[in-house]
């Protein structure tokens, strides 16, 4: 997971949108619980925003230079797949 240390070089902001209680957002909630501290420790200046809204489908957003944003729908993905999607978003900004 060496890519996590260079995350702030390729991405300007990360946002996770999820529902507080829906089963569809459960893997996203677990991903945040298990990985937020590690990502912030490696990238202390990177905004890592968690947005909770009732009934929303889980999504992962990455903002790059010049305000360009990319979104990935996390519905039906496991924690490992969410981690892989974040890695892909990070590499897309390099």
Task: Summarize the entry for a quick read.
The chain is of the alpha+beta class and 94 residues long. Helices cover 37% and strands 22% of the residues.
What brief labels describe this structure?
94 residues; 22% strand; four-stranded mixed beta sheet; 3 helices; 37% helix; alpha+beta
Shape: globular
Main beta sheet, described?
A: 4 strands, mixed
- Radius of gyration from the alpha-carbon trace, in angstroms: 12 Å
Residue stretches low in confidence (pLDDT < 50, at least 5 long) are none
Q: How would you describe this structure to a colleague?
A:
- Disulfide bonds join 19-53.
- Belongs to the complex I NDUFA2 subunit family.
- Residues 20-93 form the Ribosomal protein/NADH dehydrogenase domain.
- Strands 2-1-3-4 form a 4-stranded mixed β-sheet, with helices on one face.
- It has 3 helices and 4 strands; from the N terminus they run αβαβββα.
- The model has no long low-confidence stretch (mean pLDDT 93).
- The chain is of the alpha+beta class.
- The two termini are 16 Å apart.
- The relative contact order is 0.27.
- The radius of gyration is 12 Å and the shape is globular.
């Amino acid at each position: 997971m060496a890519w996590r240390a260079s995350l702030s070089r390729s991405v300007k902001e990360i946002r996770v949108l999820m529902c507080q209680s829906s089963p569809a957002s459960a893997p996203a909630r677990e991903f945040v619980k298990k990985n937020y501290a590690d990502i912030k420790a490696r990238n202390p200046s990177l905004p890592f925003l968690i947005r909770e809204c009732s009934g929303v489908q889980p999504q992962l957003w990455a903002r790059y230079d010049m305000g360009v944003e990319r979104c990935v729908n996390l519905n039906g993905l496991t924690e490992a797949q969410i981690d892989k999607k974040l890695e892909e978003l990070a590499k897309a900004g390099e």
